[in-house]
Every structure is written in structure tokens, then in C-alpha cells.
Amino acid sequence: MFSNLREDVSKYYIKALSLRSYFIFKMKKHHEKSTNNKLLMIKTYLSKTYIFKAFAAVCIFGISISGCTSKKKTPMETTDTTENELTMLVGTYTSGTSKGIYSYRFNEENGTATPLSETEIENPSYLVPSADGKFVYAVSEFNSTQAAANAFAFNKEKGTLQLLNSQQTGGEDPCYIIASGNNVITANYSGGSISVFPIAKDGSLLPASDIIQFKGTGVDKERQEKPHLHCVRITPDGKYLFADDLGTDQIHKFIINPAANAENKEAFLKEGSPAASKVKAGSGPRHLTFSPNGHYAYLINELSGTVIAFEYKDGDLKEIQTIAADTVNAQGSADIHISPDGKFLYASNRLKADGIAIFSIHPDNGMLAKAGYQLTGIHPRNFIITPNGKYLLVACRDSNVIQVYERDADTGLLTDVQQDIKVDKPVCIKFVP
Predict the structure, then answer these.
(1) What is the 3-state secondary structure (H, E, C) of the chain?
(2) Which position has the higher pLDDT, 135 or 261?
(3) Is-contact 203 178, C-beta < 8 A?
(4) Rounded to an integer, what distance in angstroms lies between the CA atom of residue 233 and that of residue 105?
(5) I need a labelling partner for 344 at 20 to 30 A (CA). Which of 55, 208, 282, 325 fits?
């Protein structure tokens, strides 16, 4: 509105100056006339000049006022837009048409996504941004020496990644990666190990400083023939690392050395006591999450299709409940997350009745109660909840889409908003801090 006003005022100002020139011309033309007429002309000229000068001053004042007014509104509009936008990264399997990692702007108020960039890297099935958002670390999941951890510099404004370097994991099929302080840790599924990589000052990864190999088997001869590490998580107090072992039905515990870095070469992890927490035979621990208050932990078991609730305190897990997430015995339970308000827990199931099991969380004791079930696209391997809790996004690997669901804050139930994000073989979604 104000830009149009400035244009109109400018036009009138130019006209005023043109008329002033016209009166000067008329005075010269009648220079030979009588003195009386000349005086009259001068008087007229002066009065006209005064009027137009005054008008011009008003115009300039109007331009200044409108300019100041519009400047006050611009920052507010920009801030509002920025506050609603999240930078989103998507990891994929690259056996089809996918190139690797995709970045988007996701609006957490209306649930829409805008593509930003794509980065070529093979099988980035899991990734994590650094705490400051300047770097991204991703696995390359291979059952060979190609298995690697990759470091990228990240431009958050443009959504672009630049590969810094890659390091071999020393364990096949790395499927999970986290960054903690000065180190990056991978869980190597087929290798039955976890690998620790010190972070260099430029954000790149140094060769693995430690590869911890596990031993043992489980009761399922096909799926538990050896250790299968599927997830590593730092506890809310920052003191411990838990590693979920699908192959031996254990959660391994390690004490974290926060001082460990590339320069002092101290070990980042030390075996805890007890070294592991056992769960029911044949469960197949996959992913672990913690309540926002840090008092409870919840484990999704891939093989038994159950969620186990634990009380958590200073490195110890005390089992308090086991509840079914998969009721059709598909042996494909996958991911688990809690809403930001701590009221609801969500667990994904694959292979049969693909969908999300929804549970309410008792505020006093952390116990779960079934609240609903949302059918999704095919093979919901991973999902994420927006920081404001409004949307839940599901990576449906075999449907080649990320589905966007609006979340009811009171009931926890989900509604498909029909704003799918098309991407080939999506298996990991992360928001950049």
C-alpha cells in the first residue's frame, strides 16, 4: 500500500515542478509588457511558486513518513515466516531412483514442504545433524567394506551439504548414528558392533578410535544368530550410552567420558556396571526413547512387537510394563517417539497392518494405555514429530512418500492432511536445530 502511495506522490511532485517551469517561461515571454502587468505576473509567479514549493515539501514529507512506516512492518513479517519454518533432512536407500540426502523447508504451522537440495551419497539410511546445525553425519549402509560414516558441512539457509570426508565403520550395515560432544557413534547391525569416531576441528571425522565388538546369540535362529546392534542413545543426564542389541535381547550400557577428544585420545566409552540389561528372550530390541522429563525409557522390540516401559535413574533401567504395539505378529516393529508434551507415545509397525500404534502416558507412573492405531503407507520404517507437536511425519519406504499427519493434542490421534512429500525410499527424517 505504502509503495503505491509513494509512486502517486512522486508523480504529483514532478507535475508541480513542471508547472513551475511553465510560469517561468510565461514571465519571460511577457517581459516586454507594461510594468503593471509585469508586477502582476511576478506576484502571480511568486504565489504559484510558494504554493508548489509548499506542495513539494508536503510530498517529500509524505514519502518519508510512508517509507518509515513500511520499514517497521518488514522485519515483523520476515520473523513470522522464519519462526514457522524448519529445515528438514531426509535419508534414503539409493537402490532405486534416490540420489541420497534431500533437504526441505517444512512449515510446522500448515504442514507444507518446499524442496531445497539433493546430495549424492549412497545408502544414507540414518543421519544426524550436529547440535549447532553446522554439520551433518550420515551412514552409508552396506554389508561390505563400503560401510561408512560420512561428515558434511551444512549450509542451513540454502539447505546444501558439502561432503567433508568418509571413514570406514569397521562393521557391516551401519544403521544408526549419533553425535555426542566431540565424537560420533554408529550402530553396525550386521557387524554386531558400535564404532566411535573423534570429530576434527573442521567437523570432519577421524578414523575410528574404538570399535566395540559384541558376542552372543538369541532364541530366534534366523534373526538372532549373532549380535545385531540397531540403535545407540545417550541418556537424558548425559552420563551413559545405551546400545540396543536385537540379536542377543540386551541393552548394553557404557559410561561416557565427556573429556574424550581427538587430541587427548582418551576412550569415549567405558563398560558400565551392569554391562547390560536383559529383556525377554526373542524380543529383538530395536529403538529406545526417553520421556521429556528423563524419568522413563521406552523400548520398541522388532521381533515380539512389544513396547517395554522402564523407570530410568542414574544409568539403571527398571522394567515396569510390557504392552503390545503389533497385534498381528508381523515381527516388523520399527520406530518409537514421544510427543513433546510427554503425553503420548507412538510406535511404528511394518510388514502387516503398516501403521502407527498410539499410547497415552500416565503422568504419575509412566505406564502406557492404548489410545488408537493409524494405518499408514507401506513400510513405515521411521517417523518424527515436529517440535511444536502439531504434525507427525512418516517415512513410508515402499510407498516412496513421506506422509504428513496432524496430531490431536488432546487425544493423540492422527489425521492424514493429504500433503505427501514424494521421495524414493525414504527411511530417516531429521530436523536441523
Answers:
(1) CHHHHHHHHHHHHHHHHHHHHHHHHHHHHCCCCCHHHHHHHHHHHHHHHHHHHHHHHHHHHHHHHHHHHHHHHHHHHHHHHHHHEEEEEEEECCCCCCCEEEEEEEECCCCCEEEEEEEECCCCCCEEECCCCCEEEEEECCCCCCCEEEEEEEECCCCEEEEEEEEECCCCCEEEEEEECCEEEEEECCCCEEEEEEECCCCCECCCCEEEECCCCCCCCCCCCCCCEEEEEECCCCCEEEEEECCCCEEEEEEECCCCCCCCCCCCEEEEEEEEEECCCCCCEEEEEECCCCCEEEEEECCCCEEEEEEEECCEEEEEEEEECCCCCCCCEEEEEECCCCCEEEEEECCCCCEEEEEEECCCCCCEEEEEEEECCCCEEEEEECCCCCEEEEEEHHHCEEEEEEECCCCCCEEECCCCEECCCEEEEEECC
(2) 135
(3) no
(4) 27
(5) 282
- What is the per-residue pLDDT for 397? 99
Pairing of strands 127-129, 135-140: antiparallel
Within 10 angstroms of residue 229's Cβ, the number of other Cβ atoms is 31
pTM of the predicted protein model: 0.82
Read off the pLDDT of residues 128-147 as tens digits, 9 standing for 90 and up. Answer: 999 999 999 999 999 999 99
